[in-house]
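User: I'm writing a short report section on ligand binding and want a predicted complex to refer to. Could you take this sequence and S-adenosylmethionine and write out the structure as C-alpha cells? A short remark afterwards would be nice.
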Amino acid sequence: MPKTTERRQRPTTTDQATRAARDARSGATAEPDAARSPGRAARSPGRAARVEGGVVVRAGRKSTRRRRRTASGFTAATADKYVLYQKAVQSPELDVEFLRRVFKSTRGREALHFREDFCGTGLLSATWLEHSPAGATAEGFDLDPEPIAWGLAHHFHDLGEKAAGWTAHLKDVRAPGTRAYDVRVSQNFSHFVFTKRAEMLAYFEAARESLADDGVFVIDLYGGSEATEEMEEETKFRGFTYVWEQEKFWPGSGEYVNHITFRFPDRTEMKRAFSYKWRMWYLTELEDVLLDAGFARVDRYFEGWNAKGTSGNGIFKKGVRGENCGSWLAYLVGVK
Ligand SMILES: C[S@@+](CC[C@H](N)C(=O)[O-])C[C@H]1O[C@@H](n2cnc3c(N)ncnc32)[C@H](O)[C@@H]1O
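Assistant: Sure. The C-alpha cells for the complex follow:
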C-alpha cells in the first residue's frame, strides 16, 4: 500500500513557481498517486473552508474524475476499516525505500533486522521482508490483538519462506524484543501517544538500547500552523472519502484529540473508525529527548514538494531548518 504518499504540505509563503522549478532541478518530481499519514490529507492552497459548530471544515481537493458511486462497492455496513486505512494513510513501499536508503547512507551497509513499533497490522514489516534478502527479520509490537490478527490473515501469505522472518509481539513498545535491530521505527506519529516527557524519554532509551551498535531509530512527525487547528479535512479516494478530524487541541497541556472517519457514496459512514489521544510534540522537543536518551546524533529529513508546488511529494531529504509552511512532514533519525 505504498500506493500513495502524497504527504501533504501547504505553501504559505514560498512562490509556487520557484518551488516547482526547484523540484524539477532536484529531480524531485515523483508524485505518488495518493497521500497518507493518519491525519494529514492532501492539501491545496486557497481551498474554500466553512465553519460548522466552531470547527473549520475544509473540502478536499476536487476530483477531476467522475465519482464512481458503485465501482468499489464500499459502504459502511461491509467495508473493512483496515483496508480503507491502508488505502488512505499508508505507503509502505516508499517508506521501506526511505528506511533502507537512510540506513545505507548512514552506515554503509544494507539493513537486515527491522522492528516496527505500534505496528498495527504489520504492513510495513511485511513490505520490509518482501524487499529484503533471505535471512531478514521483522518484529512488530502492538497492544491491540485485532490489527495484529488482521495483518497475519492478510499480509504474510504471499511472502513464502520470508514470512518466517515475522514475529508479532502483543506488548507495549517499551518492551524488549529478541534481537539487536538495524532499523527500528515508529510511524504515523504513533509515539505522540506518550504525553509526558519522562514517558517519551523511557521509550527512546529503550529504543536506543535495543539497536545494533550501528542501528538507527526513525520516527516521523508533522507540524505547521494548520497542525493544531480544530478542523475536518476530506480527501477523496476511489469509492470512499477519508476524513481527518482534528477535534480538540489544548495549548496549555499539548493534549490533542483526532479521528479518522470514512464516508461512502451511498451517504453511509464509519464515524471515527480510528481515534487518537495524543500530545502534540514539536520537532525540537523530540530531538532534545532523543539526544537525552543517548543517541549520538539526530538527522532531520524533510519532505519535498510536488512539481506544482501544491503538495508534498513523499520524498524526504536531509535538511537542517525546514520550511515554515502551513503543514509539513519530517522524519527524525536517531543514530546510535
Ligand atoms: C496510529 S496506529 C499505527 C498503525 C501503523 N503502524 C501505521 O503506521 O499506520 C497506532 C497503534 O499503536 C498501538 N499502541 C498504542 N499505544 C501502544 C503502546 N504503548 N504499545 C504498543 N502499541 C501501542 C495501537 O493499538 C495502534 O494499533
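A remark for your report: The helical segments are 16-26, 81-89, 92-107, 123-130, 145-154, 197-210, 283-292. Residues 38, 89-90, 118-120, 141-144, 147, 172-173, 187-188, 190, 193 surround S-adenosylmethionine (CB under 6 Å).
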